[in-house]
Hints:
Structural class: mainly alpha
Helix content: over 70%
Largest sheet: none
Amino acid sequence: MYNDYDWDKLMSEYDGKTEDELMLELMNTIHEQSRNGNFDTKQFLELCEMIDPMLTNSQREKLNQIIAALK
C-alpha cells in the first residue's frame, strides 16, 4: 500500500516542523479522520510498523502512547 506513496512530498510538507508540531498534527489528523469515519486503525498500525526502525527511542515511546490510546 505504501510502496507507491510519495514520501518526498510528505517529507517536504513537514520539513522544519518540530517534533511536538508533528505529534500534534498526527493527533489532529487521527481525530478528524475518526470523526469522519475514515480512520483505519489497521492501516495506521501498518504504517507505524514501517516507520518504527527510523524512530529514536523517544519518538517510539510517543508513538506507542498514541497507539495505546487508540486501543
